[in-house]
Write a structure and sequence with these properties.
The chain is mainly α. It contains 18 helices and six strands. 53% of the residues lie in helices and 9% in strands. The chain is elongated.
Length: 395
Amino acid sequence: MKNPKTRGKGRVFPHGNFWWIDITYKGKRCRERIAPLSLGANGKKLAQAVLAKRLTEIAENKFLDVKRDCKVTFPELANKYLQWAKYNHEACERTDLIYIKHLKAYFVDRLIAEISKEDIERYRIKRRADGVGPYTINHELGALRQMFNLAIEKWEHPQDKTQYLFSGSNPATKFKREYEKSRDRALTKGELVNLMTQLTIKIETEKNPAIKKDHQTLLDVILLAVLTGMRKGEIQSLKYGSDDIRIDGVENHLMLRHTKNGSDRYVPLGRIPSEILSRPFNFDYNPKRSFGKLCEDAKVRNLRFHDLRRSFATFLVGLGTDPFTIAGLLGHELPGFKVTAIYARPQRDGMIAAIKKLENHLIEAVPSGFYGTGRAQTEIEVSQLIKNQALNVSV
């Protein structure tokens, strides 16, 4: 009599929301998800048919041949993920492109079946040795884990539509995360005034039209971030002509679609953001380099563009805005209020009032020559600022 472990035995069983098959082959247990329970009897019949096929493959010594024949390379898997992310991960599409670029450069044309947990660990060590920050490393490995999860649970095998693209365990699961130190940097009101002053000087004195336009766009982007709390990617996701930008003079607002947490978000607009978005604006503008140079010139240390979002929330806290309203403006969930948030929503009137209060609080940082309101800066004042800057440089 032949050893049953070498010939295979199996069963069909429901687990979670799916029908599965379970086979023991050469002492190794192999489970395969087949069809959703929602198909009822048809789903069970499909699972039984697949089980019969697998047992036939065992009898003919062809079991697992499909897995060996899978020639999907890592770049092919990465490109498939980017196509998926384009419609299912829109809020992070730009960053996904950057993360995948580094992953593809490392794994080159490796077959996904050949990638092991040790390969993932070597990648993590290499990125750390290259001086890459913990946040970036964790997100790159998170994207890699998501790619394999989709290949295991969602995408079909190119040679057999009844199987998933990847049949092994996810090599990127439970990777050792790099320690991420939480940032608490936020602008003070005085630092914001310094940034705006420095940028005003640059705009007023620049002779090159292209550079002058870049300075003006940077000014607009900074004020949009500080006065709305939007992320850089959310600003860049906006498009002219879209119904998501409503500037009608009654209730000016934005509707951000597919934000980081997957939901839409209402963003009330004060007078200055409304004016910025009422005229031609380059939504693809990337402020990273210009913003860093501005902070250096204004002697504002250790500030990143995303810190403007934290500054927005910090200013609102200082003005006495309740946490529920701040969470609504940021698109966050308050700990312990997840169920409550299903039934209760921050009132739009309260959100609009908070935005107006914030704009009034920061109005002295806004150069009036550009937005028709704010702290006046005459030609004499700008000239004096330039002289003061020259004295500081000479010292």
